[in-house]
Write a structure and sequence with these properties.
This protein is of the alpha/beta class. The protein has two domains: 16-221; 324-439, Rossmann fold. It has helices at residues 16-42, 48-70, 75-81, 83-116, 120-130, 134-151, 153-156, 161-168, 170-185, 193-225, 296-299, 338-347, 367-376, 395-401, 416-428, and strands spanning 228-234, 239-245, 259-264, 274-277, 286-292, 310-316, 329-334, 352-357, 380-384, 409-413, 436-439. Helix 2 (48-70) packs antiparallel against helix 4 (83-116), helix 4 packs across helix 5 and helix 6 runs antiparallel to helix 9. One of its GO terms (cellular component) is membrane.
Length: 445
Amino acid sequence: MTTVEARPGPTRGIRPKVVARTGLQAGFAVNAAIVAYLFVQAGFASNALIVLGRLTGLYAALLMAFQLFLMARLPWLDRRIGMDRLAGWHRWNGFLLLWLLLGHAVFIVFGYARPTGRDPVDQTVELAETVEGVLRAVVALLLILVVGAVSARFARRRLAYETWHFIHLYTYLAVALAFTHQVAAGTTFTSSDLATAYWYALWGSALGAVAVGRILLPLWRNWRHKLVVTAVVPESDNVVSIHLTGRDLDRLPARAGQFFLWRFLTRDRWWQANPYSLSAAPDGRTLRLTAKAAGAGSAALRQVKPGTRVFAEGPYGAFTTLHRTRPDTVLIAGGVGVTPIRALLEELPGHTVVLYRVGSDKDAVLHRELHELALARSAELHLITGPIAPDPLAPHALAGLVPDIADRDVYVCGPPGMTTAVLRSLRELGVPKPQIHFERFSLAG
């Protein structure tokens, strides 16, 4: 049996998630107030539409910088809030940003067109030709419109992760174009030394966070640990486990329940980064991921050879024991969502009940390991099979399997539909929100 280091007990006092969320909200509120102050100090244009255009443009710039912070993958923030929720906030913030940018463009164009009587198209062309930075702003807006379209739910479900991720990278080009537009044409930006210093500091901090979280830290960790594949083990017809080792893995701050973005450095796969959860608790010597063939990237994992070098970004996610509030736990897994659940079972103290929901026995990946772990840790394991109706995880069914579920922490990981249904059942059973921890597969699959 794998030996893992002792973990802290249930969280006391203010929860880490609350601290991080409150810090983000307070930081945004302070910056929103600073932007409003600098806007007023710069003075108002005579045209109300231009005033609205400048104000929406400034808050769009603030939201754009905030977007960078949300997805900078800073470890302190990610461990407390989780990539899953940060990605959700990033998505909704992105749609608000899009509306502010559209409002900025419409107000500015109509504001300048009203005194001259030009139509909006002619006015846009005239501004692009005569005002430095406007053409770059138009290109940035078009790029953000494309990214917003592919991020909509109906489009996201139809795109491979690799395609969506590649298109999303154009956001950085849009950010660069928008920033140069603000420098060149932003009246408030140049209205005072204080305003100029503030905006440079804001953009510098946001871009610096991205550079640290998404470039420098991953490069440092991969140079330090030098991960390499040691074995490729088929778990079923469409599920495979990859075993890895490396240097100084005891210093890699990975925990059970977290995931990495894995890049296998072969000739045909080095450019693909796919998110997979750890399926075993890190022991300081090895790592293991287990993935289902859900796309071209995961289907090709069977072809990876031992000895292949791996570039891993992470660890990411707040689906860990850091957020425990109670001594005892319920782990609920659906399908391949069992991978982080299996890892958590290795690490969790106290009495644990595991509910594993699959369509049939043959779909129960890692079931033998779960059974052995449950025996070794005096945990209860329930394999739940059969059709989705009637719901085997409905409130009355959960209460029958775990009568004291409201007095336990509950970890849920599975397909979005199952996760949503279980969360609804937990609410009906009166499980307090701080005791519910879940992963929706929105990024880590």
